[in-house]
Specification:
Elements: H1 2-23, H2 38-58, H3 64-86, H4 90-106
Length: about 140
């Protein structure tokens, strides 16, 4: 009796494993979500570096002269990366920077990955981490 039960169990497992093959089902060779390109990765890194430099300056870690040089270099890298991805001009870059700043002020920009989340978000839609609370208007 035990042998018959074991044979039935083995038969069920084999049938379960062979069923997709017998049905002709195949696995997808691509992902459902879009992977980022090298140009998009450079764009994100450049914008995060620019954000970090501005944060360091406001925290007093970098003096005015160093910040000005660093910001100029990082802004040029960010603009080049954005142009490579989207083909945008200086006005588009300024709009994107303004959106990121507004998102940081509102607590919508993720401090970990830099993703700009919709208003009212409590967690980052890209990485899932909790978002920082909005900064008061007088402290920015």
């Amino acid at each position: 009796m035990e042998i018959l039960g074991a044979l039935l169990l083995i038969g069920a497992v084999v049938a379960y494993l062979l069923l997709p093959i017998l049905k002709g089902e195949t696995a997808l060779l691509h992902r459902d979500f879009e992977e980022i390109t090298e140009a998009e990765a450079r764009r994100r890194i450049a914008l995060l570096a620019l954000r970090d430099a501005e944060y360091d300056y406001h925290m007093g870690k970098v003096d005015q002269a160093d910040y000005t040089k660093l910001k100029g270099r990082l802004a040029a890298e960010a603009l080049e990366a954005i142009r490579a991805v989207d083909g945008v001009d200086d006005a588009d870059l300024e709009r994107e920077i303004a959106l990121v700043r507004a998102g940081m002020r509102d607590g919508r920009a993720c401090g970990s990955c830099g993703h700009l989340n919709p208003p009212g978000s409590r967690f980052c839609a890209a990485c899932g981490l909790a978002l920082a609370p909005p900064t008061p208007a007088g402290s920015a």
